[in-house]
């Protein structure tokens, strides 16, 4: 039973803040993934939870108990290292039994418990081998076994799949998720792989330069990224981000840039609504406008066409390259000064060098502040609370 | 119209590749042969300087030593060497000095082990707690004696261990005549050699400790192991290749060879041969008794003996040590 709370934790190395004021609450039974690019501080954060690195500031609590000063061995946590850290001179059996031996349990109990764990992980036949005689996948399972054997309150994992080949990684991903479901224990899992984060996590914490960008379910961080960084980190290819300006046109708000005109469908703009923004659209939300519509008398500015009930958001550009992914294809288009990726089912009808008009539904538009990169949410009434729905604009 | 299925052909190269006809005849074959020979010779050319040095300075003297061990000769260029067969070996094994000197060498080895293994491991483990620049300063201080020339350190220790005014006797309140009593002389020679090589051993242990992946200790501490358990169960076993290396160096190098300049300048093997180890005995035979045949026979015997010891230690090291991979 472990609830892990991290309060305002900072870790400095000289002048560098590897982790900068991070607060997190991992409920019992959660599978939290710490996600971010290399050097974002996710491993350091995990090691502070484990007790391997002391925080420069802040507190770490396990089940409400402050363990900031508690040594790693008294925290009732288990950790799987990226390198697995299997003791090279000990057999698989001794490796798995090590945590029990360190706790001075009886030999017979250790043997029985190791056998149970080996059974779960299908390691029964390998108990007499030494780590160097094992394959990568087997080593990974021994490392898992050493964590499982003690039945700890929480499992900490530092990129445990990064040394496996692609096929084994997919299989092990499922196994770990299954393990989490069966044990019902808290998992904190560090990775830079968004696929692992999306598929395994019950919640994802995205870190960038030591700071927490967003915490939420995989769906939340993908569908409503809280910052331009999160938007640009998740997705393959990630969200298209373009510099744009919010302008008022006919009393309505538009996000415009070179080749881009996106009516936001919001009325009654306040005087401060106009501002520089970063406009975000996921590649799969862009679609190619049929040629017949393009041929129609659409004005250059993309203003409402009279007949259309809601003016379509349009991006005008040129196809620069096409990548064939088998079931889908990705078209890289130049829109104004920016590169925009479009992802669509094959055949999508793109031709390299062709001018295209792309459309996107207003609800698939994301707006971020140009300076801070934080997500912008539209509040129709200045005094009303911020709506839960992700309607764009100003905070 | 009747349709039919046709198999898709597997990919093939557009045209079969034909080996170019061997043109040119004999001249070309010969040239190719010399080129191939040249390629084979080049690596040996690179090895020649090193091999040459080994042959001139190691193997040739070895062979000559083996040869002289069957002659009686007093090293004088004007005197002829007379063949005596196995007589030198017979003398060597019937004289009591050989056994005594081997025994004293063993005592020196045992006396040196605390300096080359025990203290370095303790210091190395403690030194891990020293961080940053202080650590380098600390290691430099310990390493410093290794850089002192043995004869210079002999002079310093002769003064420190002098019976009347020596700092050691004054500090301990004793009046031991260190270099003129049998056991104290052996202890002093061993101790000064130990002081001399301690820094080297500490450095080797520090390097060995540094090469152990820090993940093991971290994993063990999360697994619930105490510091002492980590040291006993992980650090020391993983350090075993380093420790065997130090054992080998002590047996083959420090105890027999590094003691030599100290023995020669402090006790000359005395008193009553109390500090005569195998190398000093060898030297005495050759350059004090001028008995080249006997010295050569001793040299050959020691060469074989140490070779055997080295082989046994290597075998142990392969068996016992664990390598981190």
Draw up the topology in text.
The complex is a heterodimer of chains A (395) and B (325).
Chain A: E1 4-13, E2 16-26, E3 31-35, H1 42-50, E4 57-62, E5 65-66, E6 77-80, H2 92-102, H3 107-120, H4 136-148, E7 154-158, H5 166-183, E8 186-191, H6 194-200, E9 203-208, E10 211-216, H7 218-223, H8 228-233, E11 240-249, E12 252-257, E13 260-263, E14 276-281, E15 287-288, H9 291-295, E16 313-324, E17 328-335, E18 338-345, E19 355-360, E20 366-369
Parallel strand pairs in A: 3-8, 3-9, 6-7, 7-8
Antiparallel strand pairs in A: 1-2, 1-4, 4-5, 9-10, 11-12, 11-14, 12-13, 13-16, 14-20, 15-19, 16-17, 16-19, 17-18
Helix pairs in contact in A: 2-3, 2-4
Chain B: H1 26-68, E1 71-72, E2 82-83, H2 87-94, H3 96-127, H4 133-147, H5 150-160, H6 167-172, H7 182-210, H8 214-222, H9 227-258, H10 260-266, H11 278-287, H12 292-320
Antiparallel strand pairs in B: 1-2
Helix pairs in contact in B: 1-12, 2-12, 3-7, 3-9, 4-7, 5-10, 7-9, 8-9, 9-12, 11-12
Description:
The complex is a heterodimer of chains A (395) and B (325). Chain A is of the alpha+beta class. Chain A folds into 2 domains: 4-227, P-loop containing nucleotide triphosphate hydrolases (Rossmann fold, 3-Layer(aba) Sandwich); 240-369, Beta Barrel (OB fold (Dihydrolipoamide Acetyltransferase, E2P)), CATH 2.40.50. Chain A is built from 9 helices and 20 strands. In chain A, strands 11, 12, 13, 14, 15, 16, 17, 18, 19 and 20 form a 10-stranded antiparallel β-sheet that branches. A 6-stranded mixed β-sheet of chain A has the order 6-7-8-3-9-10, sandwiched between helices. Chain A has a 4-stranded antiparallel β-sheet with strand order 2-1-4-5, with helices on one face. The radius of gyration of chain A is 26 Å and the shape is elongated. The model of chain A is unreliable at 296-310 and 387-395 (pLDDT under 50). The model of chain B has no long low-confidence stretch (mean pLDDT 85). Chain B has a single domain, classed as MetI-like (MetI-like fold, Orthogonal Bundle), CATH 1.10.3720. Chain B is mainly α and 325 residues long. The chains are: A alpha+beta (395), B mainly alpha (325).
């Amino acid at each position: 039973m472990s609830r892990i709370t991290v309060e305002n934790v900072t870790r400095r190395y000289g002048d560098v803040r590897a982790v900068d004021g991070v607060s997190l609450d991992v409920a019992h039974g959660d599978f939290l993934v710490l996600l971010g690019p290399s050097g974002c501080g996710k491993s350091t954060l995990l090691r502070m939870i484990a007790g391997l690195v002391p925080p420069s500031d802040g507190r770490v609590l396990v089940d409400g108990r402050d363990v900031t000063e508690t040594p790693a061995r008294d925290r009732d946590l288990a950790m799987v290292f990226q390198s697995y850290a299997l003791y090279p001179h000990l057999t698989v059996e001794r490796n798995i039994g090590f945590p029990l031996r360190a706790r001075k349990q009886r030999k017979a109990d250790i043997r029985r418990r190791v056998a149970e764990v080996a059974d779960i992980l299908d390691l029964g036949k390998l108990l007499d081998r030494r780590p160097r005689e094992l394959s990568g996948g087997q080593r990974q399972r021994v490392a898992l076994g050493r964590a499982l054997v003690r039945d700890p309150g929480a499992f900490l994992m530092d990129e445990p799949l990064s040394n496996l080949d692609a096929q084994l990684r997919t299989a092990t991903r499922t196994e770990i998720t299954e393990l989490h479901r069966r044990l019902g224990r808290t998992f904190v899992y560090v990775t830079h792989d968004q696929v692992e984060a999306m598929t395994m996590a019950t919640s994802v914490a995205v870190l960038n330069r030591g700071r927490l960008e967003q915490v939420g379910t995989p769906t939340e961080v993908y569908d409503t990224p809280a910052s331009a960084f999160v938007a640009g980190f998740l997705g393959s290819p990630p969200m298209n981000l373009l510099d744009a300006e919010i302008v008022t046109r006919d009393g309505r708000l538009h996000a415009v840039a070179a080749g881009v005109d996106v009516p936001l469908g919001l009325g009654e703009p306040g005087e401060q609504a106009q501002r520089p923004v970063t406009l975000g659209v996921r590649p799969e939300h862009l679609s190619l406008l049929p040629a017949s519509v393009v041929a129609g008398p659409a004005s250059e500015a993309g203003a409402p066409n009279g007949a259309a009930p809601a003016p379509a958001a349009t991006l005008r550009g040129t196809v620069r390259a096409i990548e064939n992914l088998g079931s889908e294809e990705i078209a890289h288009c130049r829109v104004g000064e920016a590169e925009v990726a479009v992802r669509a089912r094959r055949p999508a009808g793109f031709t390299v060098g062709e001018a295209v008009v792309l459309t996107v539904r207003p609800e698939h538009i994301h707006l971020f502040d140009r300076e801070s990169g934080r997500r912008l949410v539209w509040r129709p009434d200045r005094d009303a609370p911020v709506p839960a729905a992700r309607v764009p604009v100003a905070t | 119209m009747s349709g039919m299925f046709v198999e898709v052909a597997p990919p093939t190269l557009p045209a079969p590749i034909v080996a170019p006809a061997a043109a040119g005849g004999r001249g070309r074959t010969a040239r190719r042969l010399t080129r191939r020979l040249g390629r084979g010779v080049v690596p040996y050319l690179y090895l020649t300087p090193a091999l040459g040095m080994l042959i001139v300075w190691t193997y040739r003297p070895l062979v000559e030593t083996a040869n002289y061990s069957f002659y009686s000769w007093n090293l004088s260029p004007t005197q002829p060497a007379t063949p005596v067969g196995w007589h030198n070996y017979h003398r060597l094994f019937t004289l009591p000095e050989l056994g005594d000197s081997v025994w004293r060498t063993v005592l020196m080895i045992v006396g040196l082990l605390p300096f080359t293994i025990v203290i370095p491991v303790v210091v190395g483990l403690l030194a891990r707690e020293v961080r940053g620049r202080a650590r380098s300063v600390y290691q430099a201080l310990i390493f410093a004696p290794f850089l002192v020339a043995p004869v210079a350190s002999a002079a310093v220790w002769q003064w420190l261990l002098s019976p009347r005014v020596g700092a050691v006797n004054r500090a301990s309140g004793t009046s031991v005549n260190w270099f003129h009593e049998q056991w104290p002389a052996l202890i002093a020679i061993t101790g000064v050699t130990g002081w001399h090589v301690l820094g080297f051993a500490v450095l080797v242990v520090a390097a060995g400790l540094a090469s152990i992946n820090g993940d093991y200790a971290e994993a063990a501490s999360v697994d619930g192991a105490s510091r002492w358990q980590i040291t006993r169960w992980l650090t020391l076993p993983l350090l075993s290749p380093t420790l065997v290396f130090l054992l080998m160096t002590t047996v083959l190098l420090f105890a027999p060879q590094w003691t030599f300049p100290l023995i020669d300048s402090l006790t000359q093997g005395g008193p009553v041969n109390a500090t005569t180890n195998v190398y000093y005995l060898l030297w005495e035979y050759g350059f004090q008794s001028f008995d080249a045949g006997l010295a050569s026979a001793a040299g050959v015997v020691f060469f074989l003996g140490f070779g055997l010891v080295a082989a046994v230690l290597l075998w142990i090291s392969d068996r016992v040590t664990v390598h981190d991979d």
